[in-house]
Amino acid sequence: MTGAVILALLPVILLIGLGAWLRRSGFLAAGFWPQAERLCYFVLLPALFVHGLSTAPLHALPVGVMAVTLIGAILVVAGLVLAAHRLRPIDGPAFTSVFQGSIRFNNYAAVTVAAGLFGAQGIALAALCNAAMVPTVNVLCILVFARYGQARLDLGGVLRQIATNPLILGCAGGMLLQFGGLALPPGLDQALRALGAASLPLGLLCVGAALDFGSVRSWVRPVAGSAAVRFLVMPGVTLAIGSALGLGGEALVVALLVQAMPTASSAYILARQLGGDAPLMAGITASQTALAALAVPAVLTVLAP
Q1: Residue 221 parent element (H or E)
Q2: Would the CA dihedral through 101, 237, 135, 175 be positive or negative?
Q3: Average pLDDT in the 141-163 region?
Q4: Hey, where are the domains in the chain?
């Protein structure tokens, strides 16, 4: 299990490192990175969600119980993070990064590890997790950005952000196709698959390019706090809810696996686009990815049935 997790996370770590080198070496012009982030946010990530959610094999899986377990855990943990912020507040943009680092997950690594553990069944279960979690996480993050980001929004602005957010629209489109029993046309299917696949390397390169190692000292508390929630609190809450609902076997293991994954590069893209603390978000992403090689096997060893 430890080997499968490390193999899944190693490319993520290497791509972040490459992005940091490319930015600092000047190999690419500084103006390239904002445009790359924009491409990821408006084109590549929505394509990933449309294709992934529309083609996920969800039949014969415990859809209802897994969805309630995962969404319930996310809502509980989001409430705990908000309550903790009221007790020990930090500045708004930094809190958006801590919040994303606490509830957002790396779905690429999750699918890879689930496939390594359980084969096709693991892929199907991970796809179900994506279908339940991606829309939930994105709506919650939009609401937090509206309240704590640099650009504060009124109710109308929040609704517009949700209704026009490309990540949420991608999720909605994928689920509409999935539950409507509609298939992507052959040419569009391949195009969306290729665009979605491109979101992983480019997004991680952008994360590496944004790392500011001169700010490491100021990152210690938020990085440690988000990592504790991501690797300890989230899996623990998921186990409690899943066990209470009778979720077990491979479904519970995959649910725990996904909830223990480090945060994704899309968190950084969202922070850049919606007024969060993007350098801190890059630091949280890179730190959690490095920690995950030890944390994820530990979580599964201790909590998995």
Answers
A1: helix 216-228
A2: positive
A3: 79
A4: 2-303
pTM of the predicted model, to two decimals? 0.79
Check: CB of residue 196 under 8 Å from CB of residue 77. Answer: no
Q: How far apart are CA 272 and CA 33, in angstroms?
A: 11
Contacts 24+ apart (CB under 8 A), 29-33: 33/206, 33/209, 33/210
The DSSP output letter for 44 is I
Alpha helices in 149-215 (DSSP H): 155-164, 166-179, 186-210
Q: What angle do CA 206, 286, 202 make, to 5 degrees?
A: 25
Fold of 2-303: Na+/H+ antiporter like fold (1.20.1530)
Query: Which of residues 212 and 182 earns the better pLDDT score?
Result: 182
Residues in the chain: 305
Q: What is the pLDDT of residue 88?
A: 84
Q: How many CA atoms lie within 13 Å of 279's alpha carbon, on the beta-carbon side?
A: 9
Measure the CA–CA gap between 110 and 200, rounded to whole angstroms.
13
Tokens of 196: 């979605």
Of 5, 65, 45, 55, nearest to 189 by C-alpha is 55
Tell me the HSE value of 157 on the side-chain side, using a 13 A CA sphere. 11
Report the C-alpha gap between 44 and 156 in whole angstroms. 27
Report which of 248, 23, 46, 40 is spatially closest to residue 165, judged by C-alpha positions. Answer: 46
Measured CA distances, 257 to 8, 55, 129, 232, 235 (Å):
12, 21, 10, 12, 8
Helices (runs of H) and strands (runs of E) counted in the chain: 14, 0
Half-sphere exposure at residue 17, Cβ-oriented, CA atoms within 13 angstroms: 8
The residues, any chain, with a CB within 8 Å of residue 110's CB and separated by 6 or more, are 126, 129, 130, 257, 258, 261
In whole angstroms, give the CA distance from residue 296 to residue 231. 7
